[in-house]
Amino acid sequence: MANRSAIEWTEVTWNPVTGCDQVSPGCDHCYALALAKRLKAMGAAKYQRDGDPRTSGPGFGVTTHPYALDEPYRWRTPRVVFVNSMSDLFHARIPLGFVRDVFEVISDTPQHTYQVLTKRSLRLSRVADQLRWPANLWMGVSVENAEALPRVGHLRQVPAAVRFLSCEPLLGPLSGIDLSEIDWVIAGGESGPDYRPVHLEWAREIRDICVAAAVPFFFKQWGGRTPKARGRQLDGQLWDEMPAVGVM
After folding, report:
1. 208 sits in which H/E element
2. What is the DSSP string of 110-169?
3. What letter would DSSP give residue 46?
4. Are the C-beta atoms of residues 230 and 206 closer than 8 Å to each other?
């Protein structure tokens, strides 16, 4: 089943795959890992497989769920869907054949708009030409600091209808980021007891680059101990811009 999402830039989540492990500093305080531990303790079937204790910890092993592929066919009204909020569709342990199955479901349900986000941009770029890209699929990469900027170049190689960046949690400046062929940028701070604060100038710089490039900008949160601790306004304004393409 789809779960109604508290993420401001989507409506529901769909997890045909669960499980992941850490690949960059943006993963250090992974909300999905903490949630997976709770779901495992509650007996949720999707979260019973242990991961590598050196990386992903208990209850977060990468697992495909073929039965979940049928879910979008049963949704009666159009939805904006975040795919794999509890995993990364381009993780090396997810067979390319299963990625194709997910893409086929997306293609078969054009009334919905699907958002896929990855940190494994190199694999994404390497397999992009082996996938059929539906017009209702938005493809994004996480860019949490300057070291992650090469992911933007990988994303440009992908023939997605919408390409977007998630600069969250924003852990450093992204000075001079090139937004050519990018259709949307999300930015935001980290939340949780060990959150790393986002600096005002980092957020302003990304916003200003987006405005100059006419790229829609979405500021999700400042973060803090809780997601809403410091609100969502940037310089007294809410930034909730979205790409127009494919939104139902």
Report:
1. helix 200-213
2. TTSEEEEEES-HHHHHHHGGGS---TTEEEEEE--SGGGTHHHHHHHTS--SEEEEEE-S
3. G
4. no
The pLDDT of residue 59 is: 59
What's the pLDDT score for residue 58?
Answer: 60
- Confidence label for 4 from pLDDT (cuts 50, 70 and 90): confident
- Give Cα 107 distance to the centre of its chain: 19
Q: Which helix (H) or strand (E) holds 34?
A: helix 31-41
Burial of 120 (0-12, 13-18, 19+ CB in 10 A): buried
* φ, ψ of residue 102 in degrees (nearest 5): -65, -45
Q: Are strands 3-4 and 12-14 parallel, antiparallel or unpaired?
A: antiparallel
- Is residue 165 within 8 A of residue 188, CB to CB? The reply is no
* pLDDT on residue 31: 82
Cβ pair 40, 47 in contact under 8 A? yes
Tokens linked to 177: 């980021």
With H, G, I as helix, E, B as strand and everything else as coil, classify residue 240: strand
The rounded distance, in Å, linking the Cα atoms of 72 and 54 is: 34
Given a contact cutoff of 8 angstroms between Cβ atoms, the answer to whether 150 and 183 are in contact is: no
Residue type, 99: V
- 248 has pLDDT over 50: no
Amino acid at 42: M
Task: Report CA-CA distances (Å) from 232 to 75, 158, 195, 235, 237.
Answer: 31, 31, 16, 10, 8
Domains in the chain, please, with CATH?
9-16+67-219 (3.80.30.30)
DSSP structural state of residue 11: S
Residue 105, amino acid = V
Rounded CA-CA distance 232/210 in Å is 17
